[in-house]
Amino acid sequence: MEDASLVGTRERILKAAELLFASRGYAGTRLHEIAHGVGVQKASLFHHFASKEDLYRAVLDEGHHHSRVTLEKALDGADTPLEKIRALTEAYVDMVVAHPERTKILLRESFGDVPPGASRHETQQILGMVVDFVEDQRRQTGNAEVDVRALLVGVIGMVAFFFTSAPVLVPAWFADPLDADNVARVKRLATKVVEDGLAASLKIPATTTPTKVAAR
Amino acid sequence: MEDASLVGTRERILKAAELLFASRGYAGTRLHEIAHGVGVQKASLFHHFASKEDLYRAVLDEGHHHSRVTLEKALDGADTPLEKIRALTEAYVDMVVAHPERTKILLRESFGDVPPGASRHETQQILGMVVDFVEDQRRQTGNAEVDVRALLVGVIGMVAFFFTSAPVLVPAWFADPLDADNVARVKRLATKVVEDGLAASLKIPATTTPTKVAAR
DNA sequence: GTCTATATAGGGATAGAC
DNA sequence: GTCTATCCCTATATAGAC
Question: Less crowded by CB within 10 Å, the N or C end of chain A?
Fold first, then answer.
């Protein structure tokens, strides 16, 4: 972590923009709010970014890049297929927890909440990467009965929604949704869903003893 | 289903507004688009609703009301606790499938995408109703190890994301996401997650034979 | 109850001094 | 590279005829 005063204005704008785009959406965010968040005048933003749309795309690109790197690293860092899948799942949860705003923006992307010009290309590539890997494994075992895509989409929805939306919807339910307990809880749930879902396909032993969610 | 020409203009406005608010969000939706969807002039909207915000709230209220009625009906229509929980899960999936736009709007609500005045009161009440029921059952078995709230939030995220966001994100993956096959698939996955998650608490036998997702 | 015309405000973007 | 001042457009909302 570097001293905030040492990072360039461009970076501080990106950060403030990410925060606001996440909570208000593209159309709902006002440039003067972003400027205010940075502590600068609205007009100054245009020195760093050509337009609001350009700024949004920069935020989006950063998110895509980070996601891709994180997931690739998880995939490369583990050895066996089972370990890779576990690493992938945990890395995703960790990523969401570490960057809930970014996650929210990517979720918004999946709502069609994007400026006119933007495409879903990047996200599609990243999801494709994950699915390709899992399907590769699946093909080797010859099992065709699991829909990897549906499972992936379901788990993403589960994890992302839990950490980004639940706090807004029912703030009283999870005092601090990002605390270690909750993270562990969701990680366990996600891992279980993934592994049970893929058990038959990947010859993973089903983890399901009737769910005992151990206290921390 | 009534003839479209027989429903009042107010209802047709609500419907067009729901569609647009769902896909573009509150801030991203223009009143003239809604008017165009109805086939009427922009100014005419103000005869039926005092303001854009008022219209949005009406759409939201309708969604809340329908959700509450649907879930209450599912709860009342089943006998044993296990059947009630299954009915609840299936009813939720069916509701999402039948009204993806409404679902998207409620998801947006959980993003904080609401006009200044709105509150999350209604949604909180509905979620509370479900949780209260499940926790009631849980208390009778004395098991304290499952976090019903986390499970509920997770499943909602999984189901809602699958049907509303996945089609936008990766349209190529699910030719028709709302078709019977996909619905069955998700229903099975959701039911499994719920029942495995609650198995220990409700003395439900764990369903987990290593997941075999039967072809239709 | 719907229309045309218009008022008004606010937001994105630019000009140009410093 | 940041500021102040301003342009210009669009979106909500209103007025008032039909």
Answer: N
